[in-house]
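Researcher: I'd like a candidate sequence for this fold, 245 residues long. If you have to choose between options at a position, lean toward the conservative one.
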């Protein structure tokens, strides 16, 4: 086994042990969209060591990515009810919106300063596509084939985007910053997520610039869709479906 293959095997094992988003009972992790199978086999890039500081931006960003992918895998589970799948889709869009906004507020400025301005600008441009797809989904009827197709398109774009982040951007950032700086970015990233909009706003170039009134309106919409208090950002699918179990 070559070093690259061994690294991927190690990372897969660590993810199973430290999963942010566990697979639901009865769902085979090997099943699902081919895109996700390909994503698991990506041969290059940053592989977090087993002792990676969980408070570092190097751990937090990939963990967010894994959580969103986990929500999509559960969303594709045919044994869930349509209402359960709708709640999972809503939470996926909320997680994605908050994650993108936090990246624009914390990660990308750090990349622009320490690595390369163009890399940061390119990532923001890719977010524009994710926001457009997310906004489209918010205006579509859940369960229609058009909705399913748009969700698939969103996730394909997301996978391409995070491949660049995990395999180019984060390794480049690690080369330029000290561990203490990476931990500080992680702290600021998590703090930023507490105040970010939970909806896509494609009309705003940097979602982190959305005003407080818009954030409150997003929260009100979330409460209405989840019939009360929505799951916290970062919740596993079991928490998203807590009232459906």
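Model: Candidate sequence:
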């Amino acid at each position: 086994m070559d070093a690259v293959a061994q690294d991927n095997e190690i990372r897969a094992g660590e993810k199973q042990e430290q999963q942010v988003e566990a697979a639901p009972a009865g769902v085979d992790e090997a099943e699902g969209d081919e895109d996700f199978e390909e994503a698991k086999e990506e041969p290059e890039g940053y592989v977090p060591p087993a002792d990676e500081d969980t408070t570092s931006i190097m751990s937090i960003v990939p963990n967010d990515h894994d959580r969103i992918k986990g929500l999509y895998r559960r969303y594709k589970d045919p044994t869930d009810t349509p209402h359960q799948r709708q709640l999972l889709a809503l939470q996926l869009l909320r997680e994605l919106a908050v994650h993108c906004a936090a990246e624009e507020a914390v990660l990308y400025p750090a990349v622009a300063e320490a690595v390369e301005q163009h890399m940061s600008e390119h990532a923001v441009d890719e977010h524009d596509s994710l926001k457009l797809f997310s906004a489209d989904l918010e205006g579509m009827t859940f369960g229609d084939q058009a909705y399913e197709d748009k969700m698939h398109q969103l996730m394909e774009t997301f996978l391409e985007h995070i491949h660049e982040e995990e395999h180019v951007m984060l390794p480049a950032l690690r080369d330029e910053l000290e561990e203490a700086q990476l931990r500080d970015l992680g702290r600021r990233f998590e703090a930023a997520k507490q105040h970010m909009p939970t909806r896509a706003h494609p009309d705003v170039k940097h979602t982190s610039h959305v005003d407080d009134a818009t954030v409150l309106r997003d929260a009100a919409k979330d409460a209405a869709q989840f019939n009360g208090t929505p799951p916290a950002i970062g919740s596993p699918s079991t928490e998203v479906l807590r009232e459906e179990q």
